[in-house]
Design goal:
Elements: H1 7-26, H2 29-45, H3 47-58, H4 62-86, E1 93-95, E2 109-115, E3 119-122, H5 136-144, E4 148-151, H6 157-173, E5 181-184, H7 187-195, E6 201-205, H8 208-219, E7 227-230, E8 236-239, H9 241-260, E9 272-276, H10 282-290, E10 295-296, H11 300-314, E11 320-324, E12 328-329, E13 332-333, E14 336-341, H12 342-347, H13 349-352, E15 360-366, H14 369-377, E16 384-388, H15 394-397, H16 401-407, E17 410-413, E18 452-458, E19 480-481, E20 484-485
Helix pairs in contact: 2-4, 2-6, 3-4, 3-6, 4-5, 9-10
Bound molecules: NADP nicotinamide-adenine-dinucleotide phosphate (NAP).
Length: 486
């Protein structure tokens, strides 16, 4: 099952996706919502089988983790059904001809977002459901009206194949064209598909080296395509002195819980904690971390990457181990909490600001607001930045905010970054290396925008216009007409 897809099958899959593109794009939003709902129902019905497979291949616990993740995955498919029913995602905009337009007379011009074409999705290893075969990238591309070719992650091949079968069968049974969805296996096949001119966009969740290599391929094709890569993130957390005084113990425990959750294998794991000097939380942190059992990591590649990253971090001058738990055996690792000073951090910023994917995190102490701002100033952008503060901190924190908005796509106040809800307002992105496309999100309903391309229709007779742009608004869409929302 983990064997690479053979070249003839890969060619059939790419040809079928290209053939299906027109029909998929022409389906109405209501039809596509029906396909997504059918897919969600089929995956829910197969939950026991899929969760058992995922547990075997990824070592993630069935309950509550994999159960919760599958629930999130099918919720996500259904939520995109609501996006389709709402219609605002199409961005339908009508400007009637206007002889008195201030810059000179304008023609009738109408703009609509249109499916981009077949999308190649590289599944993630660390969310075998929610960021894998039937995950957010697939859901948003299908909702946008694009066929999907899914490059399975080598960490869970059987689960990928089975999820792909169930998803494809449900979509086709609900009326989608045959080539709407297929899974391919093998690293080289991912590259071959990415270079194929029939693929019009790609998305990815994984490592910086892997994502960067694929981004470079996507953008150096003879016909370059958008590549939505979600790569690495350190996710700094800033704790104020007032928050330490008010609830230091709870913060220490919350932090230890967040960075060790799921063996630290979340792209939103808090990898850096900025504490005020003299915080006095050492003992509580030591105890909280010492109580974390060793947990098996997803696979050997990730366990080896974690061991290397941790060794590199531990060797930095001025970085010390504050607490360790559980030991290491095979692919199982305990938690490690490291600590350093602002001076040591600034002296080797390149190493200490790198993501160490797994159950490790680094505490950095700061003397005052100026020092905190200079520490944040050397951070690379990531997905999130968190503040643990009190109401009395508002004036102290305000000047720090620009340093945080520079480095993150999502800012949190008195919460932990692990746990990414799927909603209309969610943003899961950020400037490079968080992503290769900082204007987009891979989670939440806005993820659909990645797979839509705007087309303006100038001067067309009504009957040749796409229905969403016709004069009598037959789909009853929310539209902007002559500059006014309707
Ligand atoms: P990965 O090694 O980047 O692999 C992700 C996908 O890209 C897989 O399908 C892989 O194919 C493919 N790939 C990787 N390098 C490639 C290359 N040079 N050319 C073509 N295809 C390539 O990521 P991973 O296995 O999930 O995890 C490894 C590391 O990624 C972790 O230790 C962690 O640092 C990071 N990670 C980050 C996130 C995040 O959300 N930020 C999530 C997961 C992992 P094969 O599977 O077939 O090899």
């Amino acid at each position: 099952m983990s064997q690479a897809t053979d070249p003839a099958t890969l060619e059939q899959i790419l040809a079928a996706a290209a053939d299906a593109a027109g029909t998929t794009a022409a389906a109405t939003p209501a039809q596509r919502a029906g396909w997504l709902n059918a897919a969600a129902d089929a995956l829910d019905a197969a939950a026991d089988e899929l969760i058992a497979l995922a547990n075997r291949e990824t070592h993630l616990p069935a309950s509550p983790r994999l159960q919760g993740e599958l629930k999130r995955t099918t919720f996500q498919l259904r939520l995109f059904g609501e996006v389709l029913a709402d219609g605002e995602f199409l961005g339908a905009t009508v400007d009637h001809a206007d002889a008195a337009w201030p810059m000179g007379p304008r023609p009738d011009i109408r703009r609509l977002l249109t499916p981009i074409g077949p999308v190649l999705v590289f599944a993630a290893s660390n969310f075998p459901f929610a960021f894998s075969v039937a995950g957010g990238d697939t859901a948003s591309a299908l909702a946008a009206g694009c066929p999907v070719v899914l490059k399975a992650h080598s960490g869970h091949p059987e689960l990928s194949a089975r999820t792909g079968e169930i998803l494809r069968d449900a979509l086709v049974k609900a009326g989608a064209p045959e080539g709407i969805f297929a899974v391919v296996h093998g690293q080289q096949n991912g590259v071959t598909a990415l270079k194929d001119p029939r693929i019009q966009a790609a998305s990815f969740t994984g490592s910086v080296p892997g994502g960067r290599a694929l981004f470079d391929i996507a953008t150096s094709r003879p016909s370059p395509i958008p590549f939505y890569g979600e790569l690495g993130s350190v996710n700094p957390v800033v704790v104020t002195r007032a928050a330490i005084d008010a609830r230091g113990e709870a913060i220490a425990k919350g932090y230890a819980g967040s960075f060790t959750l799921g063996a630290g294998q979340f792209c939103t794991k808090p990898g850096l904690l900025f504490l005020p000097e003299g915080h006095g939380l050492e003992d509580t942190l030591r105890e909280a971390v010492a109580a974390v059992p060793a947990q098996p990591m997803l696979n050997e590649r990730i366990a080896a990457g974690f061991a290397d990253g941790l060794a590199k971090l531990s060797e930095v001058a001025g970085v010390e181990v504050l607490s360790e738990s559980g030991g290491t055996e095979g692919i199982s690792h305990g938690a490690t909490l490291l600590a350093t000073t602002a001076k040591a951090f600034l002296a080797d910023a390149d190493t200490v600001r790198e993501e160490c994917f797994g159950p490790a995190s680094l505490i950095v102490t700061y003397a005052d607001q100026d020092e905190l701002i200079s520490l944040l100033g050397v951070m690379e952008p990531g997905l999130t930045a968190t503040i643990q503060g009190e109401e009395s901190d508002v004036d102290w924190i305000r000047p720090v905010l620009p340093s945080l908005t520079r480095v993150a796509g999502r800012l949190l106040w008195n919460d932990w970054p692990t746990g990414v809800t799927v909603t209309w307002a969610q943003e899961h992105g950020g400037p490079y290396p968080a992503t290769t496309a900082p204007t987009s999100t891979s989670v939440g309903t806005a993820a659909i925008e990645r797979f839509l391309r705007p087309i303006a229709w100038q001067g067309f007779p009504d009957e040749l216009l796409p229905e969403p742009l016709q004069e009598n608004n037959p789909w009853d869409l929310p539209r902007r007409t002559d500059g006014k929302r309707q």
